[in-house]
Design brief:
CATH class of the largest domain in chain B: Mainly Alpha
Radius of gyration of chain A: 31 Å
CATH architecture of the largest domain in chain A: 2-Layer Sandwich
Largest sheet of chain B: none
Structural class of chain A: alpha+beta
Distance between the termini of chain B: 48 Å
Order of helices and strands of chain A: HHHHHEHHEHEEEEEEH
Helix content of chain A: 40-55%
Shape of chain B: globular
Distance between the termini of chain A: 99 Å
Structural class of chain B: mainly alpha
CATH superfamily of the largest domain in chain B: RNA polymerase sigma factor, region 2, helix turn helix motif
CATH class of the largest domain in chain A: Alpha Beta
Order of helices and strands of chain B: HHHHHHHH
Oligomer: heterodimer
Largest sheet of chain A: 8 strands, mixed
CATH topology of the largest domain in chain A: Phosphorylase Kinase, domain 1
Number of strands of chain B: 0
CATH superfamily of the largest domain in chain A: MucB/RseB, C-terminal domain
Strand content of chain B: under 5%
Number of strands of chain A: 8
Radius of gyration of chain B: 17 Å
Largest interface: A-B, 39 and 47 residues
CATH architecture of the largest domain in chain B: Orthogonal Bundle
Number of helices of chain A: 9
CATH topology of the largest domain in chain B: Rna Polymerase Sigma Factor, Chain: A
Strand content of chain A: 15-25%
Chain lengths: 259, 163
Amino acid sequence: MADATITEDELHAYADGFLPADRLAAAEAFLAANPAEAARVAEWRAQAAALRERFGPVADEPLPERLQIDNIALRASGLRRKIAIAASIALIVGATVGWFANDYFKIPTQNQMARALADAALEAHRLYINEVRHPIEVRANEAHLLPWLSRRVGSQVKAPDLGDEGYKLLGGRLLPGSRGPAALIMYEGQGGERVTITCVRSASNERSNFKWRQMGDIGALAWIDAGLGFVVAGPADRDKLDRIARSVYAAYELPADRK
Amino acid sequence: MTAVRRGLEPLIPALRRFARALSRDAETADDLVQDTLVRALRAEHLFHGGDLRTWLFTILLNLDRNRRRGLSRRPILTVIEDADPPAEPGSDGTGRDIERGLSLLPPEQREVLLLVALEGMSYREAADVQGVPIGTVMSRLSRARTTLRTHVDGELPKLRSVP
């Protein structure tokens, strides 16, 4: 009688609780008549129970921070990766442009480099301006801020006075890059709005024009000059950022020992 | 928050459990889960309905296969037996035995056994996750159970009869 024959697959289904109800009786009759098969099924169930006992509690462990959905979403958005390559919020004060360009373009033009630089800095800017407690590593009133950044970037890093635009220097931080560090200098306005200057060393000495990039309510101006790549990022007020960018440009035009 | 992201969150604990059993190493497992989730979010535009859980487990298995392929190219010795944290309080030797048994299974068999016995997936779902016909799932499952029996025989609690 075909119905009375229980296949190997059915035995597994029985052990796993997947056997259709209309086959249960036949399976049980078969197992009752075949103790060796019954022992196999019992053992499979014991294996499954041991697995659940050993690993089941893992699902009840509190999730580590890195597996929490918000952090996953942040990572998925690429922000972290871009920060690792790029720079951040305010005024970009110096690193290698080839460093940005490498990740974005194989053989970039100066303008492409400036655009890529701006995009990278915008992403970073977005992240750090919202950082209330640790927007910067070294505060403006610490005398070693600029010497430290300059030493690490490998070129003199400056923090021009943006008081005329209503911005006060907060401080700076170092950002990692594949070819060398980038300096990020952050300023804050009266309303808490922030502007960053990012500066990275460039692989070439050619100049580019000012490149404007906007992402939502944040804008950035980027350019390459005298072996350095710069990005000024802040609230998307083109005129204001333009003036700030010119202040930065002017600060770097001065001989190093005078500014 | 997107639909995928909302659907993803409650599945994270199960992914961790599965990954831990798959790799028997907490750090490796969480790396796998993290990469799986990031990938899922980045590729959510590729997900057009269907079973989110199956999709996530598929991603995780693919990442694990890549990981193992990477490891096999590198001259790194991994001492699997010692890589685990001590068994949780309250568990007897069974947990260690089942871990040892798992480590002896070929990967595809281990995957099927864990999908079915630990995660409670149907054979159809396990077949979807592995991207193989259901018959392949059945034969892998059968071989896994037989192998496990051979290796941990005498260490699992002996059952004398079927209740």
